[in-house]
Design brief:
single chain, Rossmann fold, 6-stranded mixed β-sheet, 4-stranded antiparallel β-sheet, 7 helices, 10 strands
Amino acid sequence: MADPPLVELREVRKSYTIGAPNVAEVLHGLDLRLDAGEFVALIGPSGSGKSTLLNIVGLLERMTAGSYRLQGEPVGALSDEALTLRRRATLGFVFQFHHLLPAFSALENVTLPALMAEGRVSAARREQARGLLAAVGLAAAMDKRPSQLSGGMQQRVAIARALVMQPALVLADEPTGNLDTASSDEVFRELRRIHAERGTAFVVVTHDPRLAARCDRVVELVDGRIARDERVAASGAPA
């Protein structure tokens, strides 16, 4: 029997109240399937609903209508506490701004998710964090604070932090949007390498067409609807 999709959204809608009785619908009945191990670019103009969709997939916001199955399990009716546990167990996050704690070392920042989820940082988790920092080229920077690291290095710390709980899916919202071209390419190479080596699924929101063309699949949102969903060949052309 085939494994269920990693993410399956059906007829998902999201509305916000912008002052009674005015309601603005941002997502208009989306269907989206993501399978384990995919590397997907999510693109679209500002205001198209990309961040809202990412927040729903990431269990940070609730949909207004529709259904959402995560690894085959319906999650729409879970309590806030259950959603938090599910999010910690399954998902990792990388944002445009790395959100590292300035008083903590790189290693301490990477172990934070374990501390929050488990109440302590075990020796095994600490060793895993060390391995992740080494894997993103920061073996010599584990004891440095964020202020001692370049922007690209800080974002690589954030990538290691997103992976420390071994998520099935990493959601990256403009992870290179605050970096120069060289640092952006460096961070994106790390995402692709981790994907290839670990089989972790990624959804990457980006405004950079160069980066979108280097993903395996491109999903384009326009006005809260999926306008395009296509595989991309190695050359960057639609498959």
